[in-house]
Amino acid sequence: MRSLFVLGSLFCGLWSAAALAAEGRLLATGGATSLEGAAGGGITPWAVLAGYGERGEWGADVFATRVETGDYRLDAGGVAVAYDNRVELSYARQRFDLGNLARGLNLPENSLSQDIFGLKVRLFGDLIYDRLPQVSLGLQHKRQKDFLIPSLVGAQRSEDSEGYLTASRLILGGAFGYNLLLNGGLRYSRANELGLLGFGGDRRDRHSVLKEGSVAVLLDRYWAVGVEYREKPDNLSFAGESDWADLFVGYFPNKNLALVLAYARLGEIATLDKQNGVYLSVQGSF
Amino acid sequence: MRRLLLLALIALAGCAQQPPKDDQLYRDLGEQAGITRIVEGMLLNIAQDPRIVRHFENIDIVRLRDKLVEQLCVEVGGPCTYTGDSMEESHTGQHLTPSDFNALVENLQDAMDAEGVPTPAQNRLLARLAPMRAQVIDR
Question: Which stretches are transmembrane (chain B) (predicted)?
């Protein structure tokens, strides 16, 4: 409830900041917001920065996302602010509802939450215009807030940092005349299930280099369809951890709103396999 | 038979030297008339765009329209000649920003939407114009 209130006041604050924010970038080039709060797709960040600010301008996002897999539910929400099309700061809160697992095993807690503080810096290039693609470096600091269950299944720590390097390019007319968005990145992380199950494990306690990427086709200025993929580590011996993938449709009616609907294949999560389901995300941009 | 082959070879060589101009995009945009309507639509959109309209004050708008039509026509493979100034010359002293450039792109997209230009043709035109950005901004 309190976090809802905080989000609400941030929302109002951002509305008034909207008067200051220009919208110098083209529609959809701010992307949606990824589960961890950084501007991008759904399960992976892009090299683009939150909102629509170009050089010397501010941009910002608020977002709310829900993923339902049948056995589990993941809710995420947060804010991101960017300046000068150069630097992005973000905050996201995730709450993972253990649903059937908690009921079946009589677990001491029925949900796992974490905070994610993000920084992303555009190093060089441009999404559309420069000779080089847009390349950004990101850092995320994650704090798991319900560490009892993760510690019982072998997680080594409740707080950790990870980095990612990501490149994005929009090729005008690149897919039979339709605009093609290519995105690829490398992540250096030891987060178990994004960090919801803590960081490092009994099986492996070092960071891994993980590949992630997405391809999208823009059907027009307002609609995008695509696929995403994210490699994940497998640090805990009590259960396997699967790579994630999804198919998505994004709708960008204007520079203030984005909606993403996806079918996500999340594989095995904490012993329960075949966690496939629906991903829905709403983003307000300013 | 051998003479025929020789003739065919010469004909082919002629083709290689003078490939038929690809005017598919020119035709997709509605040729001269369509391009003129797109340019006029864009200029009308700009006239109502507080972000960039100031850059179009105190200029000969009829001449601008004519040169833009010529330029687009040439860029999309149409039978035209561009007689205007270079991109660098015509934008020097305006100090245009990346945002200004994108605002113009949006006004052009709206004009093409109004003309019913299909998305792939719109994107192909934008792909021809995008490399000009470096000659337009920060001058």
Answer: none
**In a domain? residue B7:** no
Q: What is the pTM of this model?
A: 0.90
Show the domain range for B48.
21-136
Query: Number of structural domains, chain B?
Result: 1
Residues β-bridged to residue A63 = A78, A283
The residues that bridge with A162 in the sheet, in sequence order, are A140
Question: What three-state secondary structure class fits A155?
Answer: coil
The C-alpha atoms of residue A89 and residue A87 are separated, in whole angstroms, by 7
What is the rounded distance in angstroms from the CA atom of residue A51 to the CA atom of residue A190? 29
Asked if residue B1 is part of any domain, the answer here is no
The beta-carbon neighbor of A26 closest among B102, B119, B134 is: B102
CA gap B84, B110 in Å, rounded = 25
Class of domain A2-285: mainly beta
Say which CATH number the domain at B108 has. 1.10.490.10
The dihedral over CA atoms of A27, A32, A38, A43, expressed in degrees to the nearest 10, equals -140
* Residue B15 forms part of a structural domain: no
Interchain contact, B126 vs A172, CB within 8 Å: yes
* Tokens describing residue A231: 């490699």
Cβ–Cβ of A177/B123 closer than 8 Å?
yes
Inspect the interface and report whether the beta carbons of B123 and A173 lie closer than 8 Å: yes
Whether residue A199 contacts residue A183, with contact meaning beta carbons closer than 8 Å, is answered with no
Six token digits for residue B67? 């040169």
pLDDT in tens, chain A (286 residues): 455 555 555 555 555 555 455 689 999 999 999 999 999 999 999 999 999 999 999 999 999 999 999 899 999 999 999 999 999 999 999 999 998 787 778 888 899 999 999 999 999 999 999 999 999 999 999 999 999 999 999 999 999 999 999 999 999 999 999 999 999 999 999 999 999 999 999 999 999 999 999 999 999 999 999 999 999 999 999 999 999 999 999 999 999 999 999 999 999 999 999 999 999 999 999 9
Q: Residue A25 is nearest to which of B51, B102, B127, comparing CB atoms?
A: B102
Interatomic CA distance for residues A155 and A199, integer angstroms: 6
Does residue B9 sit within a domain? Answer: no
